[in-house]
Amino acid sequence: MICVSLGRTRHSAFLEGHKLLAEKKAELVELRVDWMRKRPDIGRLLTDRPTPVVVTCRRREDKGLWKGTEEQRQTLLREAIIAGAEYVDIEEDIAPSIPRYGDTKRIVSYHNFDETPDDLEKIYGRMTKCDPDIIKIVTMANSPLDNVRLLQLAKNADVPTVAFCMGEMGLPSRVLCARTGAPFTYAGFSREREMAPGQLTYEEMRYLYRFDRITEKTKVFGVLGDPIAHSLSPLLHNTAFRKQKFDGVYLPLRVPADVFEATLKAFDDLGIDGYSVTIPHKQAAIEFADQPDIQADLIGASNTLFRKEGAWQATNTDYDAIIETLTAAISDERTSGPVLKDKRVLILGAGGVARAAACAMQQQGASVVVSNRTKARAKELAEEIGCLTVPWENRGAEKLDVLINCTSVGMQPNVNESPYEQHWLHESMVVFDTVYTPENTLLMKHAKERGCRTASGIEMFVRQAARQFELFTDSEAPREYMTETLRRYLSAAR
Q1: Do residues 12 and 136 share a domain?
Q2: Which residue of the set 34, 89, 226, 318 is catalytic?
Q3: Which pick of 3, 194, 274, 331 has the fewest CB atoms within 10 Å?
Q4: CA atoms within 13 A on the CB side of 228
Q5: CATH at residue 308
Q6: Of residues 282, 343, 433, 446, which has the active-site annotation?
Q7: How do residues 412-429 score in pLDDT, each as one tens digit?
Q8: What is the CATH number of the domain that holds 432?
Q9: Is 11 one of the catalytic residues?
Q10: Is residue 136 among the annotated active site residues?
């Protein structure tokens, strides 16, 4: 079950918001009465309530907004109990002062907005002595490993326990607490009214991550990176899971580079079955894998880790996605055989995607040239791959058949930038921009105006994700649906 936190400054706004959540099928609503400007009228808020409620009045030391005295605050909590609220949230230290009465269930809570303390078990032990119906422990995740500690605590709990981490790194525990038997998790009314750091919205929790459908049998996957909040992989994979009726959930996993290996080992306890891998972990993923495949070894980087027969396999789905995307752009009724053989290809950039593109083009028999704003990185990549380089300032002097942009130039918000001048383009070129936010970058616009054939970043992104989906699920990916989903999202986000 999802408990939606609702905070408003006026009684009428509280009642309106509560009604709206009920219409959206919310099953439990937390009334954060500490948000109110005037003294809350508990009776008015609870009379004819459209859903069960948790009444919470959070004090300022726990990042709440309560401005009255502590005596007044505790009086409000007692009023909520007498009025028959389904749940009342009581901090651990005041639990002895709030006696049990009627059918109201007691949520005894502990919040730590600074860290996940080392003595979690000791804290939990104290809370079990506070006459709880539910124990709630919420801490700040300063490491992805904190998720594992909280979820293990909840899994082994004797009392029904809601335990998860706050912050961007804490998102996995907000979702995966469903697998520990937690009676519910918390979500926000909207992105603009976030009640705690890293809190997901009700729509995200219900429709994107499908919290209420997660069980111990649900397969878990995720995308590893730092940063990771911008990633659209969770949108793409979770909607594909739903389309194919696959019992899985896919999470954004922010993992700093210095704890990459330790995190993946700890995440074994969470039963994660596969990862997409992005910056800065693509090379570390190769080292972590038990069995990297030929493509990953060739590129020296992996964007996919998946379990097979108990071992971690590594591959790079960018490789095939790049070839397929370019082949589709070049091929027509007049072409036959290898369409990239002997083509002169200029690759802009020297990161992970550029590395995959250079290897893919070389294996297809193309003549590869790399150019990067940092000359040393271009030289390093060229030496590893065995191709040529051209200085960034001279990139327009190359005679090309294919241009592949693997830089971030032109990506939102810098949509008025292009890594390649329009007058350098000619109609016989194929232009492939791996940027997909937006899909129609300035480079793509210029290429179309000059009569070039084009290939977009969306095409590549969907192809590499679809291949990951197939490795994760052993089933065919709904590629057209994934493309439609991504384009619809990007269009709405403009």
Answers
A1: yes
A2: 318
A3: 331
A4: 28
A5: 3.40.50.10860
A6: 282
A7: 899 999 999 999 999 999
A8: 3.40.50.720
A9: no
A10: yes
Residue 144, domain CATH = 3.20.20.70
Is the full-model pTM beyond 0.90?
yes
The pLDDT tens digits of the residues spanning 327-383 come to: 999 986 445 557 899 999 999 999 889 999 999 999 999 999 999 999 999 999 999
Q: Which of 105, 136, 281, 446 is catalytic?
A: 136
Query: In angstroms, how far is CA 368 from the centroid of its own chain?
Result: 34
Q: Tell me: the pLDDT tens digits for 479-488?
A: 999 999 999 9
CB 111 within 8 A of CB 63: yes
Q: Does 467 share its domain with 365?
A: no
What are 261's two structure tokens? 């290996």
Cα–Cα distance for residue pair 392/83, rounded to 1 Å: 71
Number of domains in the chain: 3
For the stretch 375-387, pLDDT in tens is 999 999 999 999 9
The DSSP line for 23-75 is HTT-SEEEEEGGG-SS---HHHHHTT-SS-EEEE---GGGT----S-HHHHHH
Residue 282 designated active-site? yes
SS3 186: strand
d(CA 73, CA 65): 11
Which of 181, 215, 249 terminates a domain? The answer is: 215
Domain hosting 383: range is 320-455
The Cα 174–Cα 151 span in angstroms is 9
Q: Pick the closest to residue 85 from 66, 100, 68 (CA basis).
A: 100
Let me know if 265 is a catalytic residue: no
Indicate the range of 190-199, 226-235, 400-409 predicted with least confidence: 190-199
Nearest to 93 by CA among 52, 67, 59, 42: 59
Q: Catalytic one among 18, 105, 111, 446?
A: 111
Same domain, 253 and 190: no
| In a shared domain, residues 300 and 417 | no
Domain annotation covers residue 151: yes
Distance CA 357, CA 428 (A): 20
Q: For tokens 């009581």, what's the residue?
A: 90
Lookup result for tokens 């095409």: 459
Question: Domain check: are 263 and 410 in the same one?
Answer: no
Note every long-range contact of 414-418, with CB atoms under 8 Å and residues 24 or more positions apart, other chains counting.
Answer: 415/441, 415/442, 416/442, 417/442, 418/442, 418/443, 418/446
